[in-house]
């Protein structure tokens, strides 16, 4: 048991989790504050017979992992804001071609080069809408290393289950902070392995023909079956098509396979919500300060609760609406100008009860920051 | 196997313009594959976006049609993941050397075992005849209506300087040489670059008043010469054809296999 306890950075915990999930291919390009992930991968992967590539940029990194995933590898890349911007076109390709992959964005301050070593949660909407065209996407986050581990493993599972890219939207504080992690035993967290086709070699395989349950079995590219993959709209054989029926069907499929499974994909945690009159909604490192404040005020009898989101996209509107139904104040705590607050406003019955407690100056939001804003909202002054 | 066994006949007739040289390049490549006795299952073709990139749809290999300029990066992922596969990457001159220029030089530098075929028609065909990095000074294009002031790359010199192990050039007129070079390039263990001068009668030909496809082919005959020929010494403007390098260099996947061994020993 003792050797299962580690004291490490969030970025290192992410590496442990990815390897636990069966990652065997990583490509990346260095950028603060995510570089520790690729440095660790360079050490660990070859020992396990896996492949590590340092590419010429983030575009190439994203393309390389997609190619590797298609051939049957479990893949990941890691970056931060500027690199995440560069990955957007290829991310859309992975969405369109339904190739599982995990993309870590350890957020830093933006826009542009911004604040390379400071914390921010400014890429929430970029994760949702960064690539062009209508689409759905999965993006997840965590506020502690233990959760980060579980969420990362889940990201790989969701990527395989739904044949989709999954974005892990961590932040500088989580990435660099050191804390305890109890490494789960092998088998403790279930793993979803790739669903491979049962169609034998030499028999026609349709790469984009869903089974009855909607899942699309894959065939390792370069293996038993020859087929085509394209970023153009395509039919069930993978060949280009602009037939309106085919186009409509594919786009609906790409969106529905995610949106219709919000419940399965949504991860969240709740603290003291039963009788809470003020609910904080938060995620990532911000949720640590939010929880600290909630526990502190609970000790003084204040009816404060926390809803911590771990899945940001698809946004769990129904769940948020239900959890916040009885609150007088809903305060979204985040380090941007209200990217998740806007979604919470859409979710709840009375949007004018939703407020923002934020910091956008590159400084980590503290429990005191939240408390001061809370007092203003509640009309108590500072 | 005959050449026609390598194609997806149901998609013919193809979408290329009459007289387009891209079909000739594809034919030459397939003949080379036939001569090498390769099976369809061991070949992966990765392409980007452009008229040239569309040939991946017509061949019955494992085919991956990706995004503009990035085919070599996708190919690197496929190759590293499954080094036993043969990787062919046909690219337009814009695809390979404008938007994809960075990936091109870095794939060459790594000497990863991929065959890159640069189908150089000196124009952006698919988007309607804008100039490419290989159009050349003084030529006409949709976006160079007063004559192009961009200088062209020399693909061969670029590939050599970037470290590609195998570098060759030919044209769609020199079909025997095309097949022979393709064979050697595909067989070569490392990054091989084959530049094929090919005609786009629709845009480059028309804009520059080069006449029919046949005339453009004749132009290739008259403006090129075997490398090191006497004709080149007499007329330096001639473009050399042939194999410029076939070097014995460490190949990337083989090197990585050694890294795995080393890491396992030290672990
Ligand atoms: C990111 C991006 N930018 C621009 C385009 C538009 N585009 C498609 S093909 C092409 C150039 C085609 O020229 P080339 O690569 O030389 O190939 P050819 O069509 O001449 O064979 C361009 C600019 C695109 N598809 N993607
Ligand atoms: S536009 Fe030019 S390159 Fe494209 S198919 Fe026509 S002739 Fe070939």
Considering the chains and any ligands shown, give keywords for the structure.
heterodimer, A: alpha/beta, Rossmann fold, 7-stranded mixed β-sheet, 5-stranded mixed β-sheet, 19% strand, globular, B: 267 residues, 8-stranded mixed β-sheet, 10 helices, 17% strand, binds thiamine diphosphate, binds iron/sulfur cluster
What does this structure look like?
Chain A is of the alpha/beta class. Chain A has two domains: 4-183, Rossmann fold; 269-380, Rossmann fold (3-Layer(aba) Sandwich). Helices cover 37% and strands 19% of the residues of chain A. Chain A has 14 helices and 15 strands. Chain A has helices at residues 10-20, 35-47, 58-70, 81-86, 88-97, 124-129, 145-162, 172-176, 244-259, 262-265, 286-298, 317-323, 339-347, 367-377; strands at 5-9, 25-28, 51-54, 75-79, 101-107, 138-140, 165-171, 178-182, 228-230, 268-271, 278-282, 304-309, 311-313, 329-334, 354-358. In chain A, the strands form three sheets. A seven-stranded mixed beta sheet of chain A has the order 3-2-4-5-7-6-13, sandwiched between helices. In chain A, strands 10-12-11-14-15 form a five-stranded mixed beta sheet, with helices on both faces. The model of chain A has no long low-confidence stretch (mean pLDDT 97). Chain B is globular. Chain B has helices at residues 22-36, 71-81, 93-97, 101-110, 155-162, 175-187, 201-207, 213-223, 230-234, 252-266, and strands spanning 43-47, 62-65, 86-92, 115-120, 166-171, 192-197, 224-226, 239-246. In chain B, α9 (230-234) links the parallel β7 and β8 (239-246). In chain B, α1 (22-36) crosses α6 (175-187) and α4 packs across α5 (155-162). Chain B has an eight-stranded mixed beta sheet, with helices on both faces. Chain B has one domain: Rossmann fold (3-Layer(aba) Sandwich). The longest helix of chain B has 15 residues, at 22-36. Chain B is an alpha/beta fold and 267 residues long. Chain A binds chain B through residues 25, 27, 43, 46-47, 49, 51, 53, 55-57, 59-61, 63-73, 75, 89-90, 93, 221-222, 226-232, 239-240, and chain B through 11, 40-41, 44, 46, 56-57, 60-67, 70, 73-78, 80-82, 85, 102-103, 106, 256, 259-260, 262-264, 266-267. β9 of chain A pairs parallel with β2 of chain B. The complex binds thiamine diphosphate and iron/sulfur cluster.
